[in-house]
From TrEMBL:
<feature type="binding site">
    <location>
        <position position="187"/>
    </location>
    <ligand>
        <name>[4Fe-4S] cluster</name>
    </ligand>
</feature>
<keyword id="KW-0540">Nuclease</keyword>
<dbReference type="Pfam" id="PF00730">
    <property type="entry name" value="HhH-GPD"/>
</dbReference>
<dbReference type="InterPro" id="IPR005759">
    <property type="entry name" value="Nth"/>
</dbReference>
<keyword id="KW-0378">Hydrolase</keyword>
<comment type="similarity">
    <text>Belongs to the Nth/MutY family.</text>
</comment>
<keyword id="KW-0238">DNA-binding</keyword>
<keyword id="KW-0408">Iron</keyword>
<feature type="domain" description="HhH-GPD">
    <location>
        <begin position="38"/>
        <end position="185"/>
    </location>
</feature>
<keyword id="KW-0326">Glycosidase</keyword>
<dbReference type="InterPro" id="IPR000445">
    <property type="entry name" value="HhH_motif"/>
</dbReference>
<dbReference type="InterPro" id="IPR011257">
    <property type="entry name" value="DNA_glycosylase"/>
</dbReference>
<protein>
    <recommendedName>
        <fullName>Endonuclease III</fullName>
        <ecNumber>4.2.99.18</ecNumber>
    </recommendedName>
</protein>
<keyword id="KW-0411">Iron-sulfur</keyword>
<feature type="binding site">
    <location>
        <position position="197"/>
    </location>
    <ligand>
        <name>[4Fe-4S] cluster</name>
    </ligand>
</feature>
<dbReference type="InterPro" id="IPR003651">
    <property type="entry name" value="Endonuclease3_FeS-loop_motif"/>
</dbReference>
<dbReference type="Pfam" id="PF00633">
    <property type="entry name" value="HHH"/>
</dbReference>
Length: 211
């Protein structure tokens, strides 16, 4: 795929959705971090329901610690893997309080040192909370990038590096959100909705599904 086609893909995605953002509900960097930690193998809708109960009572690292592990589990027990997630979030809160003054760090190294935080989660925080032009590659973005020909790679790190290299600078800040939303609602895993896709004519997927 050439640079002109990539530019047109993102121009159309921007026209279709000028201000894309995460579907997780958050108002502070810590709320976003907590929500992303809870979102692994869970839907954003499910996480939002849980954090709607949690955040009014505890939405800072110190408040989560004061809530206690059992109290935290009670608030998030509707989410899959909530026991492990609660333990990771408690450990993360302890590190944030002890090492970072209760604030979410702004570097990848410090973020990835937090329990339950990997490269993808760190990229989400850096991009969405702090405005850095990172691209967090999840299963949706991995699929869309490979299927369309936008950035082919055998693993998420390779796809991320290719996207950072090939996505035009003017689109880089929002590329993560455009691609994840496109994968979530249009370029579906089992049956992509090619007939209603705004970039169908630019996509290089050979087995397009017409509606």
């Amino acid at each position: 795929m050439n640079a002109q086609k990539r530019h047109e893909i993102f121009a159309r995605l921007r026209e279709h959705n000028p201000e894309p953002t995460t579907e997780l509900h958050w108002s502070t960097p810590f709320e976003l971090l907590a929500a992303v930690l809870l979102s692994a193998q869970a839907t954003d809708v499910g996480v939002n329901k849980a954090t709607a109960r949690l955040f009014p009572e505890a939405n800072t690292p110190q408040a989560i610690l004061e809530l206690g592990l059992d109290g935290l589990k009670e608030h998030i027990k509707t989410i899959g893997l909530y026991n492990t997630k609660a333990e990771n979030l408690m450990k993360t809160c302890r590190i944030l309080v002890d090492r970072h003054g209760g604030e979410v760090p702004r570097t990848r190294k410090a973020l990835e040192a937090l329990p339950g935080v990997g490269r993808k989660t760190a990229n989400v925080i850096l991009n969405t909370a702090f405005g850095q032009p990172t691209i967090a590659v999840d299963t949706h973005i991995f699929r869309v990038s490979n299927r369309t020909g936008l950035a082919k790679g055998k693993d998420v790190v390779e796809v991320e590096k290719k996207l950072l290299r090939h996505v035009p600078r003017e689109f880089r800040q929002d590329a993560h959100h455009w691609l994840i939303l496109h994968g979530r609602y249009t370029c579906l895993a089992r049956k992509p909705r090619c007939g209603s896709c705004v970039i169908e004519d630019l996509c290089e997927y050979p087995d397009k599904v017409e509606l």
